[in-house]
Design goal:
Length: about 500
C-alpha cells in the first residue's frame, strides 16, 4: 500500500514537471513569435518627421474616399497642407465611424478628420479645432416619393450612418428608431433595393451618392445645419494650436477655399451606360465592381490579410489551447496543478462568455490603447486568444475520451506520465478530435470577418469598400462569399486528407 502511494506521488511530481516544462516552452515560443511580429510591424514607421495618426471613415466623398487604394479628399488635402506648413506628417487610418471618437479619446489616434460635425455631446468627450467647413443634413428619397420634408419622416423607414450627427438628430427629433448603417453608401444601396423610404445624410456625400445611383433625389429642405471640425484628445493643446493656426492662415490666403471648391467641383462619380439586357447589365456591374480602377485589388489584398490573421491565430490558438488542455486534464487526472487549473478555467469562462467582437475591441482600444501596435497583430492576438479557449476544450475532451486503461497500461510498461501523455494519450486524443478542430478553424477563418471593426482591411472590408464606391450590393457580397466558401472547401479537403492519413497509419 505504502509503495503504491509513494509511486503515485513520484508520478504526480513528474506529471507536474512535464506540464510545467511544456508550459514554459510554449510560452517562450509564443513570446518569440509576438516579438518578431511586433518588430516587423514597427519597421515601416521609420521617419524623422513628427507623425500624427488621423482617424477617418473613408466612404465619405468628397471629404474622404478611396481612389484606387489611396484615401483622398478635402480632409486629406487639408491635412497635407497643414503637414507641409509645419513639417509634420499625418498617417491616415480608415476605421468604423462609430469608433473614431473613442479612438481619439483613448489616444489610439491623435486626430479625427472625418467630416466630423461639432456637437455639444462630442464636446464633452473631445476638443474640437476651429471649424473649416459648413454642412447640412439632407433627406434623400427615391424619385416620386410622397416624402416632401422632415415632417414626413416620423413613420417611415429612415436610414442613417451609425453614430453620425445625422443619426443623433434623427433619433432625438424625428423618429426614434432609424435604421443604422456603417456608412451612408450602404444606406443608399439599401434604399435603392427598396428597403428604406429615406436616408438622412450630410449634403456633400449625399450629392455624390445621388449622382452615382439612379432614380434618387435630394429634398430641398435640410434637416439641420452643421459645422465640420477636427477633433483631438482633451488637453492636446500643442497639436490643437498648430492646426488652428494653420487653418487660420489657410483661410486668410485662400488655400482652404480653393481645396474645398476643387473637390466639390469634382464631386460626381461618372455614371455607367445602362446596358439593354440583364446579362449586359451584369457584365457592366462586374466590370465596375472588379475591373475598373483595379477594384479587385481590395479583395486580393483583403484576402491576404484574412489568411495571415487566420493562420497565425490558428497556430497561436493551437499552442495555447493545447497547453490549457494539458493543464486542465492533468489537474483532473492527478489532482495537481490546482492554481494553474483555476486560472485556465477563469480564462475559459471569460473568453467563452463574451463575444469575440467585444474582445477584439477591448484588446485594441483598452489593452493596447496607448501602444502604437500593428492592427494585424492585435487581431492575431484577439483571435488567437479566443480560439485557444475553444481548442483547449476540444483537446481536453479528446484526452478525457481516451480510455483510462491506456494511461495505466503506459505507466505499467514503465513509461513516465509525460511520455505516456505524449506518445500514448495525445496521439489518440488528437485523432479523435480532428473533426472538431477542423470545425474550429473554419469558424475562426470566417470570424476574422469582423476585423473591419478595428479598421483592418480584410476580405470582408475589401468588399465593403467596393460596395461603398459602386453602390452595388449584389456582386461584391457574392464574390466575398464565394472566396470564403472556396477557402473553407479547400480547408475541409485538407483536413479530410489528414484524417485519412491518420486512419491508414492506425492499421
Ligand atoms: N458629419 C457627420 C458626423 O459628424 C457624419 C460624418 C461622417 N463622416 C465620415 N467620414 N464617414 O456625424
Amino acid at each position: 500500500m505504502y509503495g503504491i502511494l509513494a509511486h503515485m506521488n513520484t508520478w504526480r511530481a513528474k506529471a507536474e514537471a512535464v506540464s510545467q516544462s511544456i508550459l514554459i516552452r510554449s510560452l517562450s515560443l509564443l513570446i518569440v513569435i509576438m516579438a518578431a511580429l511586433m518588430l516587423s510591424s514597427c519597421r515601416d514607421e521609420e521617419s524623422s518627421m513628427p507623425t500624427y495618426t488621423v482617424a477617418m471613415e473613408a466612404t465619405f466623398p468628397p471629404y474622404e474616399f478611396y481612389q484606387g487604394t489611396e484615401i483622398v479628399g478635402i480632409d486629406v488635402d487639408i491635412l497635407n497642407e497643414i503637414g507641409r506648413r509645419n513639417n509634420v506628417q499625418f498617417k491616415l487610418e480608415d476605421m468604423a465611424f462609430d469608433s473614431i471618437i473613442t479612438a481619439v479619446q483613448t489616444g489610439k489616434v491623435d486626430l479625427v478628420a472625418s467630416g466630423l460635425t461639432v456637437t455639444e455631446d462630442r464636446k464633452r468627450q473631445v476638443d474640437f479645432t476651429r471649424s473649416y467647413s459648413g454642412a447640412r443634413q439632407v433627406i434623400i428619397v427615391p424619385e416620386g416619393s410622397p416624402i416632401k420634408g422632415p415632417e414626413d419622416l416620423a413613420n417611415v423607414r429612415v436610414g442613417v450612418q451609425h453614430g453620425s450627427s445625422g443619426d443623433t438628430h434623427v433619433t432625438e427629433h424625428i423618429c426614434s428608431n432609424p435604421e443604422r448603417f456603417t456608412n451612408g453608401a450602404l444606406a443608399i444601396s439599401a434604399m435603392s433595393a427598396g428597403k428604406l423610404d429615406a436616408v438622412v445624410l450630410d449634403n456633400a456625400p449625399a450629392e455624390n451618392h445621388v449622382a452615382g445611383s439612379r432614380g434618387l433625389i435630394i429634398l430641398p429642405t435640410p434637416v439641420v445645419e452643421e459645422k465640420y471640425a477636427m477633433a483631438l484628445q482633451k488637453g492636446n493643446t500643442e497639436l490643437l494650436n498648430m492646426i488652428n493656426a494653420s487653418l487660420d492662415a489657410m483661410e486668410a490666403d485662400g488655400t482652404l477655399a480653393a481645396i474645398i471648391e476643387k473637390r466639390m467641383r469634382e464631386n460626381t462619380p461618372e455614371m455607367n451606360q445602362e446596358a439593354d439586357t440583364a446579362f449586359g447589365r451584369l457584365m457592366d456591374d462586374f466590370h465596375v465592381d472588379f475591373v475598373k480602377n483595379e477594384r479587385w485589388r481590395y479583395l486580393a489584398e483583403g484576402l491576404l490579410v484574412t489568411v495571415e490573421i487566420a493562420l497565425t491565430a490558428a497556430a497561436m490558438g493551437i499552442m495555447l489551447g493545447f497547453l490549457i488542455a494539458v493543464v486542465r486534464s492533468t489537474a483532473d487526472l492527478t489532482g495537481r496543478l490546482k492554481v494553474a487549473d483555476m486560472f485556465c478555467r477563469l480564462y475559459l469562462t471569460v473568453v467563452r462568455g463574451t463575444p469575440v467582437v467585444v474582445q477584439l475591441l477591448i484588446i485594441y482600444f483598452v489593452i493596447f490603447g496607448s501602444v502604437d501596435i500593428s492592427k494585424v497583430l492585435v487581431a492575431i492576438v484577439a483571435f488567437g486568444l479566443n480560439s485557444a479557449a475553444y481548442v483547449a476544450e476540444i483537446i481536453r475532451s479528446g484526452i478525457m475520451s481516451v480510455d483510462r486503461g491506456q494511461m495505466e497500461a503506459g505507466r505499467s510498461l514503465g513509461l513516465g506520465y509525460g511520455t505516456t501523455m505524449r506518445s500514448v494519450i495525445l496521439p489518440q486524443a488528437f485523432k479523435n478530435v480532428l473533426p472538431a478542430l477542423g470545425n474550429e478553424f473554419i469558424v475562426l477563418l470566417k470570424e476574422t470577418s469582423i476585423c473591419g471593426y478595428i479598421a483592418l482591411q480584410d476580405l470582408t472590408k475589401g468588399g465593403d469598400i467596393i460596395r461603398s464606391q459602386t453602390y452595388d450590393a449584389f456582386l461584391p457580397l457574392l464574390m466575398v462569399a464565394l472566396i470564403y466558401l472556396s477557402m473553407v472547401i479547400l480547408l475541409s479537403h485538407l483536413l479530410k486528407k489528414l484524417e485519412l492519413r491518420l486512419k491508414k497509419n492506425e492499421r
